[in-house]
């Protein structure tokens, strides 16, 4: 059986390893079937996408909508490399699932508008499926309304031409969309449970998502959340393409 590939861009080892653990947990994949490449660590090696059952793109520190002059050399390189992969992924309609940063990269790549209009604080929000979402096989078994963890400085304000809106929320109209039949992106984080998002809050308390002095209050708001549905998306992705 072919493995899946996780593309990560988190520079902090603790955050990168926790992200990998989250994807392993919710996909149900053994470690041998989820290969990880840390894109921030160096140039992307040559890849043959047919070697993989599907691609997963994690979140990270980069914002696609940042002014080019403010982007680091590493961010610009990662964007070029992800863009080249998406050229092939979309052209061939290969299985792809991007979480959070996936919205920014896929949305921008496909001609959508990604900016800071619908940024959301680190929180649990109610996400609602659209009619298309209720019919999409990747969302099988997902309630029409469910709680999900978010925390992002940018979001997709206008869908790319031809993209299908699958889920939305009151504070961020584009929570999930699909391009063609097999290319997906979510704004929310399906790889996170309460323990994982609390860990991420501690790691990124100085990253501008909230004032460091608010860390304890943010954790207090997150801890009671009941977030159980989003992880099923990852299990469905593996079941469908693995």
Structural summary, described in words:
- Pfam families: GATase.
- Residues 49-192 form the Glutamine amidotransferase domain.
- This is GMP synthase (Glutamine-hydrolysing).
- With 242 residues, the chain is α/β, with parallel strands linked by helices.
- The chain has one domain: Class I glutamine amidotransferase (GATase) domain (Rossmann fold), CATH 3.40.50.880.
- The chain is 32% helix and 24% strand.
- The protein contains 7 helices and 11 strands.
- It has a 9-stranded mixed beta sheet with strand order 2-1-3-4-11-10-9-6-7, with helices on both faces. Strands 5-8 form a two-stranded antiparallel sheet.
- Helix 1 packs antiparallel against helix 5 and helix 5 packs antiparallel against helix 6.
- The longest helix has 20 residues, at 73-92.
- The protein starts with a strand and ends with a helix.
Question: What's a quick, concise take on this entry?
Answer:
This protein is an alpha/beta fold and 242 residues long. It has helices at 13-27, 73-92, 101-109, 131-135, 194-203, 215-222, 231-241; strands spanning 4-8, 34-38, 54-57, 96-99, 113-115, 120-129, 145-152, 155-158, 164-169, 176-179, 183-186. 32% of the residues lie in helices and 24% in strands.
Q: Going across the biggest sheet, name each strand in turn.
A: 2-1-3-4-11-10-9-6-7
| Main β sheet profile | 9 strands, mixed
CATH superfamily: Class I glutamine amidotransferase (GATase) domain
Distance between the termini: 7 Å
Beta-strand proportion:
15-25%
Mean pLDDT: 96
Proper CATH architecture = 3-Layer(aba) Sandwich
Number of domains: 1
* Oligomer state of the chains in this structure: single chain
Total DSSP helices? 7
Q: What fold name goes in the CATH topology slot?
A: Rossmann fold
Order of helices and strands: EHEEHEHEEHEEEEEHHH
Question: Considering DSSP H and I runs of 4 or more, what fraction of the residues is helical?
Answer: 25-40%
Unreliable parts: none
Question: Which class of secondary structure composition applies to the elements?
Answer: alpha/beta
Form type: globular
């Amino acid at each position: 059986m072919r493995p899946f590939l996780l593309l990560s861009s988190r520079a902090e080892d603790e955050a990168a390893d926790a992200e990998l653990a989250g994807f392993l947990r919710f996909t149900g994949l053994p470690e041998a079937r989820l290969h990880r490449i840390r894109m921030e660590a160096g140039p992307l090696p040559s890849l043959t996408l047919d070697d993989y059952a599907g691609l997963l793109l994690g979140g990270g520190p980069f914002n696609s909508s940042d002014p080019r002059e403010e982007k680091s050399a590493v961010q610009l390189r990662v964007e070029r490399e992800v863009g080249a992969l998406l050229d092939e992924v979309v052209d061939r309609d290969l299985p792809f699932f991007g979480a959070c940063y996936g919205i920014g990269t896929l949305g921008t790549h496909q001609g959508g508008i990604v900016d800071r209009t619908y940024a959301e604080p680190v929180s649990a929000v109610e996400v609602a499926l659209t009619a298309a979402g209720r019919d999409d096989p990747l969302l099988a078994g997902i309630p029409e309304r469910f709680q999900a963890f978010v925390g992002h400085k940018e979001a997709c304000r206008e869908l790319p031409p031809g993209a299908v809106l699958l889920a939305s929320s009151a504070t961020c109209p584009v929570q999930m969309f699909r391009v063609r039949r097999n290319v997906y992106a979510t704004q929310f984080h399906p790889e996170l449970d309460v323990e994982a998002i609390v860990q991420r809050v501690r790691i990124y308390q100085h990253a501008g998502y909230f004032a460091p002095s608010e860390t304890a209050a943010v954790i207090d708001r997150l801890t009671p959340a009941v977030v159980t549905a989003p992880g099923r998306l990852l299990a469905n992705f593996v079941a469908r393409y693995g």
